Amino acid sequence: MQLHGLEAALFYVLAIMTLFMAVFVVTARVAVHSALFLISTLVNVALLFILLHAEFVAGVQILVYVGGVMVLFLFVIMLVQTRAEEEARVRLYTGQTWPAVIIALLLAVSFYFAMNPAQAAFRPPEFGPNLALAESTERATAGAGLNISKDTQEVGEQLYRQAALPFEIASLLLLVAMVGAVLLARGTKQEKYYE
Amino acid sequence: MISIIIGAFAYVAPLLLQAQQPFLKRFEPTLINFLMLSFLLFVVGVAGVLSRRNIIIIFMSIELILNAVNLNLIAFSRYLEINKDALIAKGLAVNPLAGPVFTIFIIVVAAAEAAVGLGIVIAMFRNRETVAIDAQPSDAIALALRARCSIFVEEAVIEGAENREPGTDKPDTDRLQKWLESLDPNELGKYKM
After folding, report:
1. Which residues of A touch B8 (CB under 8 A)?
2. Per residue in B122-140, pLDDT tens?
3. 0.90 cut: is pTM over it?
């Protein structure tokens, strides 16, 4: 799965930017800045998805994650004004940064031990990559001038055929979450008004 | 900052375009590079969850973790898609579409969880006027009483606290102290731990 040339350079640029933005998310003093850095991280991850030829998921990520979830975050941050943090009247950190660092190091060690036996498997196999199969457009939609990418069509087929039951359950989950969020945010004052 | 990144790109790109030299070919990203990036994102997210006090920033770190997992899945999906023949020839069952499908479900669940979680944050803010999630002093004292553990207080807090006597009569304070020491968690009824 080696990326060559321009894609390789783009990967490194995106990777470094993603990591920087992620660190800024965690260490920003102002909550709105943190949200904006997270938006940047999500867009970078979507670009990485496009680099990995998963255009549909990149589109879903930008539409749902950035356009839905992050907007919701920004609304709530505006509603819950944390001016105390910005004016440095309040501590930002729990005082447990050392346990966090130690856990991160332990994760690094466990990652190394998990990856080590599988190193041979991750190298390209002896037959070599079959890019012709991966890039072929034989399953593209016939006629109608639709220019859907091969990835979108196949993911759609999977979603509506093999993964139809999880799809319906996900819709039900979204409905329950919506009802729950409205209930939680409605408040008791409004309940008294309606009684 | 952006200029640094564009500069780095402009410097690295021509080098990688002519990566015939074996030295530079070694740096071309393969699957393991994507996995490393996903792991580093995950670690940053975990550090954020553990070390921030603002509940909203903790939620954002959780979103970072979920994105790291998504990146992992899509990287593997691309790897499987490219090496499908070779892996099937080795006798493995390969489904390169499991990655994107699972990722879409993760995004859906993350959206639902963000909605409900932020609803909880709003409800919490309505009651407490703050989004920091340490324990309040009253909660901490209640926990310490029930768990029978010591309470440690910073000196600055004691010095800045009002000096209130429960009652100036010595029998009153004795009685109060005896009652406090004899509190049994089992007697608290529905607040039993």
Report:
1. 12-13, 16
2. 888 877 666 666 666 778 8
3. no
